[in-house]
UniProtKB/TrEMBL annotation:
<dbReference type="InterPro" id="IPR002178">
    <property type="entry name" value="PTS_EIIA_type-2_dom"/>
</dbReference>
<keyword id="KW-0813">Transport</keyword>
<dbReference type="InterPro" id="IPR016152">
    <property type="entry name" value="PTrfase/Anion_transptr"/>
</dbReference>
<feature type="domain" description="PTS EIIA type-2">
    <location>
        <begin position="5"/>
        <end position="156"/>
    </location>
</feature>
<dbReference type="InterPro" id="IPR051541">
    <property type="entry name" value="PTS_SugarTrans_NitroReg"/>
</dbReference>
<keyword id="KW-0762">Sugar transport</keyword>
<dbReference type="Pfam" id="PF00359">
    <property type="entry name" value="PTS_EIIA_2"/>
</dbReference>
<protein>
    <submittedName>
        <fullName>PTS sugar transporter subunit IIA</fullName>
    </submittedName>
</protein>
Amino acid sequence: MANTEKLFDPDLIFFEDASSFEELFQSVGGKLLEKKLVNPGYIEAMTEREKNFPTGLDLSVVNPDSLSVAIPHTEVEYCNWKGVVVARLKEPIAFHNMISPDKTVPVKYAFFILNNEKNSQTNLLSYLMGFFTSGDKVSELDSLNTKEEIYQFITK
């Protein structure tokens, strides 16, 4: 697995106030476009993909008290960087469940996977899955207040 410090960047940890995943994707996608980390079409491609292949992950199966997360991502041609962008939501928003798409889960954190290399998405996904399922990491994340604290926590 790649060095976790290279997968995350404190400048790519966002505190968002959105009421839907579409609004969240517009906000985060706009910031990523400004930083030239994604190409035009990224927001639309990701929104469309989320509707067809939901990314909400119900972590209550791992820990009944855990907050749920989402792992939005899209095809490599929309990405100019490889890594993970973290968005903490002010209030949870509904994402459809990855495993049971007819159900929704209240998501407090979205981990956007950006990947400009074919065949390496599974590494990023398996790293994140390991992170989410070891202990109650997401609730611990929620006790942190700054980008720097979150960055230190997710890269340790």
